[in-house]
Amino acid sequence: MVLDKIVKPNDIKKLNNNELLKLSEEIRSFLIEHLSKTGGHLASNLGSVELTMALHLICDLPKDKIIWDVGHQSYTHKILTGRKDGFDNLRKYKGMSGFPKREESECDSFDTGHSSTSISAGLGYCWARELSKDDYKVISVIGDGALTGGLAYEALNNASRLKKSNFLIVLNDNEMSISKNVGGMSKNLERMRTSSGYIGLKDDIVSSLERIPNGNKYINFIRQTKSSIKTLIMPNMFFEDLGIMYLGPVDGHNVLEMVNTFNMALDYDGPVCVHVITKKGMGYEPAEKHPSRFHGTGSFEIETGLPEKSTNPGYTDIFSTVMRKMGDREEKVIAVTAAMAEGTGLRRFANMFPSRFFDVGIAEEHAVTFCAGLALGGFVPVFAVYSSFLQRAYDQVLEDVCLQKLHVIFAIDRAGLVGADGETHQGVFDISYLNSMPNMTIMAPKNKWELSDMMKFAVNYDGPIAIRYPRGEAYCGLEDNRNPIELGKSEVIHKGSRVVLLALGSMVKESLKALEILQSDGIDATLVNARFAKPFDKTILDDAAREYELIVTLEENVQAGGFGQQVMSYLNDIDYTGKYYNISVPDKFVEHGSTEQLFELLEIDYKSIARRIKEQLD
């Protein structure tokens, strides 16, 4: 196998053209085989195999810097830098990350996981290179979906200031982010893809003039006036109007064509954008037909592409059903997503109520302020977003929604530990930063019924309100327990003595199992479903301060600024003299691994909870 010849960085340069063609086929087979077992980001990696190969052929790694935007398309890069043996443990605890990580390899130039960062980071590298008078290539790879993010525009606006050294921006255009791309930039790129007439006409004119006397004089004249000619023929001058040379479109599955174009671009002083056209899911029919489904996938059957096993409905599935039904009953409800219609469960709502569904692309900041405008216009916007991505819109939530007390609903999916995607995706900070915002209400359901009831409550509420729910199955063992939702009121699940457990959201499930262990050891604790992180139930805390020798809070969020710290602050205010104990995620970035492993590692699983409580009572 040709793939066996790739042992360390730069080994690809030893291959001939026939071997390069064979290598691309073997890499695709390798990825399909391994990801069918481990899961991962399949479609984006299948689409970027030849692009990655071309970049490695023109680079000297680790000296040169390749910066992958988002980073979920970096699997081929990992293979070509000698890490193919790591795919057996891809995204597993202590195994290889699914994203670039500098601590994993010198060939990873920037830790990524969120979108639209690569141009800014690349530009920083370029100025560092220039100031230190160093000599290395800097290449930022960004997808057309990530190009809708505001940070990318800020970087492009500053890139033109780079005049004396080269900066290569590779636009990987597959017409997809996670969902299908939307908006004006997507339409502009579509026009670019179909404007090959300009490139062909230019080449024909130059070839003809070179054959006549004094032809070079006319060629130079045309080059001096090329902008006006191009404007007439090519529908978009976006990059060149920003002072960035544009080359392309180029076939993103033709290695040699890309190598030639990249080398041409690297001869130019200043920023150059090479527009590369790829196909997401290339080489695997199920992924080509359903790229969104294979953006991030679990294990699957290679022959059919179907998941190996079905699971009980998850919180996202329940949210999807609730939103669809809400669309029927509430004509003012609007659904908003940032390129995550499938991931957040809004596809059914979009199909049923297209005029009330908005996908703004990878633009979380815009999504929040857009929702603020909708709320002021008399509608009830629901922004469905992953916890880790809402972080990108902190200022907009604070200034544009909370400050104005606007009725915007934040449906925060993947809140808590998400597992295999690791540090950049763990949703363990949302309670902390939302807690600090005046006028914000924060809720967390214990199961599917409570998520449904909280959504209904949120629609009828008046003000900013967030509902955070985890990845995974939407049950906790109390499916028959369905009490009405009241603002700031908790729910007593079991009445005991000595110790009270105030569990928020997903921690109710763990606490129920911990309660069984405690009872078997003679400790009949009280268990409370907190429901609200803000405002929390002060009445039950007043009672608990009088009745129990130990108050315990449990949350799937970091300790700093979380639910537990707010409770502790209140207990101090009322001069509570008993013991208080906080069980939460430690204040650190949590690596990748299964959620079960991470719960045990962080000692927030039910066995650890029972043990830690007993230690506090001893």
Low-confidence stretches: 193-201, 224-236
DSSP helix count? 25
Rough outline: elongated
Helix content: 40-55%
Oligomer: single chain
Structural class: alpha/beta
> How does the major sheet shape up?
7 strands, mixed
Structural account:
The protein has 25 helices and 17 strands. With 618 residues, the protein is of the alpha/beta class. The strands form 3 sheets. A 7-stranded mixed beta sheet has the order 7-6-8-9-11-10-15, with helices on both faces. A 5-stranded parallel beta sheet has the order 1-2-3-5-4, sandwiched between helices. The protein has a 5-stranded mixed beta sheet with strand order 12-14-13-16-17, with helices on both faces. The model is unreliable at 193-201 and 224-236 (pLDDT under 50). The radius of gyration is 27 Å and the shape is elongated. The protein starts with 16 loop residues before the first helix and ends with a helix.
